[in-house]
Amino acid sequence: MNNPNDPNRSSNNPADWPGNTIADALTHLQARWGWFVGLGLVLLVLGVLALGYVFAATLASVLFVGAMMAIAGVGQLVHAWQIKQAHGFIFWSVSGLFYLGAGLFAMFYPVQGASMLTLLFGAMLIAVGALRTWLWFNNRGQRGWGWLGISGVLTFLVGLLIAANWPGNSVWVLGTLLAIDLLFQGWSALFLGFVLRQRGR
After folding, report:
1. What is the pTM of this model?
2. With 38 labelled, which of 22, 102, 142, 159 sits at a CA distance of 20 to 30 A?
3. Burial class of residue 171, CB neighbours in 10 A (0-12, 13-18, 19+)
């Protein structure tokens, strides 16, 4: 029978295992702080380039999304042929063909793909904003839910702006979002690298 007070007894908690604590992980990452700084600088440069060439960034994002959809479609078709149930086979086949067709369309016609993705993005923001506002309205008496209402209204308005200016804004919306994402990720990686460097001193 194991003695719970035995210091040599192995723990069932993964956090207590040797070499598996947060401190150990940070110590391991401190020696690689330069990689985070380098990655951050690369992402920042790409973000600035994306802002300067927003149309090219839009096309690049459409091509990436199209490639991911095409790969997902092929995967669903392969899955469909490996199952035996008729209903599942039909569902996965139709879904796979839709994803594959949409992905190929976006890859071969990126300008039209950007237009469709921008419209879908605006519609998604409108739906999410409306849902958040509805949730806030039904829970407005509770403390802290005001931020959800503000977020819902702002998201809803941004979605309306995108939809109202469509399709003229299709050439820059996705590219701008990609640039902002690259800049945020770059700053985050850069900041993390400098923090790890300070800890290592």
Report:
1. 0.69
2. 22
3. middle
CA distance 165 to 110: 19
Task: Give the contacts of 160 (CB within 8 A, at least 6 positions apart).
Answer: 122, 126
pLDDT at residue 25, rounded to an integer: 62
Token pair recorded at residue 89: 């086979």
- HEC per residue, the chain: CCCCCCCCCCCCCHHHCCCCCHHHHHHHHHCCHHHHHHHHHHHHHHHHHHHHCHHHHHHHHHHHHHHHHHHHHHHHHHHHHHCCCHHHHHHHHHHHHHHHHHHHHHHHCHHHHHHHHHHHHHHHHHHHHHHHHHHHHHCCCCCCCHHHHHHHHHHHHHHHHHHHCCCHHHHCHHHHHHHHHHHHHHHHHHHHHHHHHHHCC
Q: Position of tokens 């992980």?
A: 25
Residue 2 CB-density burial (10 A; 0-12 exposed, 13-18 middle, 19+ buried): exposed
Please check whether residue 44 is in contact with residue 183, taking contact to mean a CB–CB distance below 8 angstroms. Answer: yes
Separation CA 62–CA 66 (nearest Å): 6
Rounded CA gap, 97 and 148, in Å?
38
User: How many Cα neighbours within 13 Å face the side chain of 25?
Assistant: 6
Predicted confidence (pLDDT) per residue in 24-61, tens digit: 666 666 667 788 889 889 999 999 999 899 999 999 99
At residue 4, φ and ψ (nearest 5 deg) are -65, -20
